[in-house]
Amino acid sequence: MHTLIPVSTIQGPVMKPALASCAAPITAPRRPTGERIAQLLALIDTELTVVRRVVRAGEAVYRAGDAFDCLYVVHAGMYKTVNVSADGREQVVGLHFKGDWLGFDGIAEGCFGCDAIAMDTGEVWMIRYDALLEGCSRTPLLMAAVHTAMSRELARDRDSMMAMCTLPADARVADFLRNWAGTLEERGLRTDCITLRMTRAEIGNYLGMKLETVSRALSRLARDKVIGFSEKGRRDVEIPDIAALSAFVDRSLAAATLH
Amino acid sequence: MHTLIPVSTIQGPVMKPALASCAAPITAPRRPTGERIAQLLALIDTELTVVRRVVRAGEAVYRAGDAFDCLYVVHAGMYKTVNVSADGREQVVGLHFKGDWLGFDGIAEGCFGCDAIAMDTGEVWMIRYDALLEGCSRTPLLMAAVHTAMSRELARDRDSMMAMCTLPADARVADFLRNWAGTLEERGLRTDCITLRMTRAEIGNYLGMKLETVSRALSRLARDKVIGFSEKGRRDVEIPDIAALSAFVDRSLAAATLH
DNA sequence: CGGCTGGTTGAGGCATCTCAAACGCAGTGG
DNA sequence: CCACTGCGTTTGAGATGCCTCAACCAGCCG
Q1: pTM
Q2: Which region, left, alpha or beta, applies to residue A89 given φ > 0 means left and ψ of -120 to 50 means alpha?
């Protein structure tokens, strides 16, 4: 039909190949996510003026309704975004780790649509949106990186919707743990013993179920040896084998379709 | 803290004010959505070379797994995006009307993550992604418009997640109809009698419930005079008053929280 | 110690799903 | 013209998965 022009040929002047993979992957083969994140942060640091901000557990990076001025890139820590409706319902709609952006949802309306809350102490990089627009004009690689980040978030949201609609409660919890372990693994962190920094109520809210259901699901997963609990409290979960979680999800689905 | 610099001052050279509102609304007060869409399409038409493609009902604009080359802007018709999992589950994750973009989810991975299916005959504008990147570098207004579109889609996904997690089935259907009527109203179309181009099964899939539940919910809404059915088949729904749908949602929530 | 927060587990209830039957409507072919 | 078929819809009755309510337990901290 038409020939595929590599993006790099039109993305403007010379770019360091070492930075290329934090943008859209049309140009290059896949690289480890940890590397991509390091390159993204390096690119931002060189192309933009960022204000580093340290946040403590429970502190809000921004609140729903705040005027949209800045985007934030997670440099350390873990964050939840909480959608708040007019009538007061609260819903955890996203979890964010190092390398993720916070605040994309504010662009369209000019104010943020949800709260972004730190779940432990961490650091975010504030980037003024007007400066980002300017930087994207100057540096196509940066623009591509922003597009990629938004695209990834859209894909994640879709997968969440699918999980909520098609998986029974136990499988949804298993899927949740699998995703969590996956993001840790991508960042080069230990996945065999992870600490959930969320209460059962928060997990349930995120997954669309009640806290008791989460607790029961975790108990069943532990009984089936798909996960384990560390002797130090029930807050830490041992995941000896991520594939076992996937297998559990598949088994749930097979059992369901098999009547 | 710091003064708010209007984006327009850094967005580059002169821009026609008439086109300004299709981008982020920091610069300008809110305008009617229909106007924004017209301006978006005009901007795209002047800044980019588009290939117009007519699609018929049931036809795929793209399929999950297809290589990501192009984005699409809806010029006419109505489309659904369907997420397909490895094990064959299908989930409608989005509905798209005139002025919406299709394919953002392909940017990050280099291939599309879902099917985009036309639900009636319509027309999409194909835009090569490399050309779009170049155009965004050239025209900051275009870049802002793309960001705004992605941001809006993120916000919509989150509202969907919230509706699925917090609303009972009847209210979820009411909310669905309200959103549908809302998008029609934004585009200057009639909202008092809308034709659902989806089967009950599709609606149910989208809302995370079974087709019988959708049917019952619609029957109850009709019994409560919140909606009506046209005499010609049950496929057309009469919505005399959109506010009545919102009121129904609120009533459901009030009844639920009241124990 | 005693209160508090978060977690686990059980019993019963309810919203939704499953299964099933019947209907309307459009298309098709005799 | 009518029978016949297929698909989508409606409605009912029973099953079930998750929620609600409640009791109890385990850490933690003043």
Answers
A1: 0.89
A2: beta
